[in-house]
Amino acid sequence: MATFKTCDGMKRRDFIRVGALGVGGLSLANYLQMTDAGEVKQPRAKAGIFINLPGGPSHMDTFDLKPDAPKEYRGTFNPIQTNASGVEFCEHLPKLAQCADKFAILRGVTHTLGAHALGSEYVNTGSRPLPALEYPGYGSVFTKEHQGPADLPPFVTVGNTSRQKPGFLGVKYAALATGATPRAGQPFGVRGVSLGNGLTVGEIEKRQSLLGDLDKTFAGVEKNNQLLDGLDRFSQQAYSIITSKRARAAFDVSKESPDFAKPFGEDAFGMSCLLATRLVEAGVGFVSLSLGGWDTHQDNFTRLKERNLPPLDTGLSALLTGLEQKGLLDTTSVFVTGEFGRTPKINTRSAEGGRDHYPRCMFMLMAGGGVRGGQVIGKSDDKATLPAATGYSPDDAAATFYHSLGIDHTKEYHSKTGRPITIVRNGQVIKELFS
Does a structural domain hold residue 4? Predict the structure, then answer.
């Protein structure tokens, strides 16, 4: 998937990359040493998918159109009716319009952070950024709270644009990053999981035997070192993943039936959505993926119509429909958001105009995990400049997402210095989403 640079120069990159197994066979093991899960809980949803739209998509040109607003606000796109009664979307989202009964839209979401970095950190954690503290992203919290299968990574980010950091929880709760996106009809190799460069399972087994001998030789060395204490256990888990047919098959989108794969299309985002469905089906607990390029200060309508909306429409609709077909939508919580909306009033810096950063009003999308689809929660005013009444915050959305995942957002963790830190500092569950 392409890496997009926003107007302030910010690039979205992976925060951890896992290399292929070396001679010692420890790079994946080191990753697993850093992803030990916490207590087992019984969540409402068994898995989560977070989709980031970096750059900030225009709410007025996607899910919150204002056709009766003055021309300098409403833009050139027209609304179309969805399969949910009384709900309208942009005309360039026809596939999502036909599966609107599978998800809910939050309108009138509002905050005050209009810079990409700060806004992105806010919506990726659910807590307003603090200078002296980095909050963990949803995937890292999920990993801490849920124990997954031993032969699968608990948290995967697809591509190079994830903003899901482990924060103060530490890198042991970071994601396994694929470093690339799948291609249609081709096996997808993930460093540290796939057996590349001619390696075979037999060779991995020989290396594992050698590691066992080395462990015996150096037993007792630095036995008080906490990292080394658990190294053998995580080496065993790394070995389980490498030799697991289930793990390798989960990442291989070419194994999906052509009939199921076709609706996802062949672009990077659609294939990432296809991979997400396979990973969740296999037992991976949390998957994060992105679709960037929403920083439309100029030529807003052409860029949305030709570049951004078609892949979002195809990939997201196929993801939701595909999860339902596999019987996974009810047990998979999906959360889609950018860092802010765009200015309701069109600027004049290009021939057709653009929209600038606007955190005071935006949309978010939620599905699965008990969320009732086919509804719109919240409302913006007649020009989409502010919530029409009391708006929702990213904190509220985060509390709701965690609720759907069976995680208490008011739970306290502790920093290395013993400081108590609430998962979501502020925010209330939006109960209407579940009614």
Answer: no
